[in-house]
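User: Okay, second chain of the day. Same drill as before: sequence in, structure tokens out.
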Amino acid sequence: MDWLTDALKEELLTAGKRQAEADARAESCALPILTCLRLSGSSWLLASVCPDDPDMAYGLCHVAGGVPELGYIRLSELAGLRNSNGIGVFEDPMFKNADRLDVRRYADMAAITGQIALHYTY
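Assistant: Same drill. Structure tokens below.
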């Protein structure tokens, strides 16, 4: 998974542990860590990985032609995706400047627009 750095993996795992603790209190702290894109129009806004299974990521998923939805995806599955030109999933550089809203807020916006749209406050 050369598209996902060790630092991002660690950040996703830390977020997963924090979310597991919040779940025990019936709270949410699912702030997105990164956005992954695929040139075919698919995108994933990842918030965490499961502490018991670090290959399982949680976030907002939008597969081209489908409806954006909250759910889980395996990082190894993302790493294996390629478009017709052989280009794989990559990190969205625009996400670094986006607002860190709860992933459910992004899901609400995606339900209206039909796509994952990053939010920026200037």
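The mean pLDDT is 87.

User: Thanks, on to the next one.
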